[in-house]
Design brief:
Length: 170
């Protein structure tokens, strides 16, 4: 809890460099795959081959993806599936990452509060994972949205602008 609080309190400015987001996604999946296997949840990747390199802080984006994936693992019953996909929208010059699960979903009343610091529906949760994730994506000039249906799963969509400046913005 203290570690999560410190991460939240000292959200550092991103140190952006050009990265292939697919590499960041694959590394995040690798770091969470054992946890998923432990709970009998499958993690799949559906990565677009045409992603252009993008200026991001690799460690921060990785942390955001790990937070989303661990939440998805916890929300998904044994035998369920998590899919992490990427795509590039040339019309909007945005790279999208989608983390979807076949889990229990989030109620409508909770959806409005999930990014609030200290809001949690879990006994062991700190309520900081999604708040930190939201802050990371905003510091990268991006957005994060969520869609969820009870007993049908949840999808988080991260949109990061391709032209989000150099290391000194935000």
């Amino acid at each position: 809890i203290v570690s999560s609080l410190l991460d939240f309190a000292r959200q550092t400015r991103p140190k952006k460099e050009k990265h292939d987001l697919n590499d960041v996604i694959m590394e995040s999946v690798m770091l969470t795959r054992k946890q998923a296997a432990f709970t009998d949840v499958i993690v799949e990747q559906d990565l677009s081959k045409d992603l252009p390199p993008i200026n991001v802080d690799k460690d921060q984006i990785e942390q955001a993806l790990i937070n989303l994936t661990l939440n998805a693992i916890e929300a998904t019953n044994p035998g369920g599936k998590i899919t992490i996909s990427s795509r590039f929208s040339s019309e909007t010059d945005v790279v999208e990452i989608i983390v979807s699960d076949t889990g229990k979903g989030i109620s409508g009343e909770d959806l409005d509060r999930i990014f609030d610091p200290f809001f949690t529906t879990r006994e062991s949760g700190t309520g900081l994972g999604l708040a930190i994730t939201h802050g990371i994506i905003e510091q990268h000039g991006g957005t994060i949205e969520v869609e969820s249906k009870i007993d049908q799963g949840t999808s988080f969509m991260i949109r990061l602008p391709l032209k989000n400046g150099d290391n000194n913005d935000h």
